[in-house]
Amino acid sequence: MAPLPLPAANACGRSKLRPQPWKPAPGAFVALDSGTSVESSSIERPYNEKCQRELVMAAKKTNKKYGSKASQKVERAMHELKRGKLKSAKSGKKVKSRKQAIAIGLSEARREGGKVPAKPGS
């Protein structure tokens, strides 16, 4: 039976499944091949632009787009929609669309100062 292929490496050259190599603590001394020791912070590491870009993108993904107030307002709007109690503000007619219920919840959260991205096209 052939061995399974290893997972593909990311832009930094590291696999996401393998443990990361040991790195010395800042200020620790590291022994070099020549027999001398040097402080680990003074060792220059090559700047990898792809690796830096990947780290920035990962940080952006972890940032939440919507706040908890937006979540609560949309949840309440969906609850009212399911019960048949949600009405449009302008016409006062019952809302039947799930998308419209979400839009109502987000606009209410915006009005109250919740963390919600701006409407598209505005």
Description:
The protein is mainly alpha-helical. The protein has a domain at 68-111. 36% of the residues lie in helices and 5% in strands. It is built from 3 helices and 2 strands; from the N terminus they run ββααα. It has a two-stranded antiparallel sheet with strand order 1-2. The longest helix has 16 residues, at 68-83. It is elongated.
Helix content: 25-40%
Q: Which spans of ≥5 residues are poorly predicted at pLDDT below 50?
A: none
Strand content: under 5%
The helix-strand sequence is EEHHH
Tell me the number of helical segments per DSSP (H or I, 4 or more residues long): 3
Number of strands: 2
Major sheet: order of its strands? 1-2
| Mean pLDDT metric | 76
Multimeric state: single chain
Principal-axes geometry comes out as elongated
**Measured on Cα atoms, how large is the radius of gyration?**
26 Å
Structural class: mainly alpha
Distance between the termini: 59 Å
Largest beta-sheet details: 2 strands, antiparallel
How do the helices and strands line up, and which of them pair or pack?
Blueprint: E1 29-31, E2 37-39, H1 49-62, H2 68-83, H3 98-111
Antiparallel strand pairs: 1-2
Helix pairs in contact: 2-3
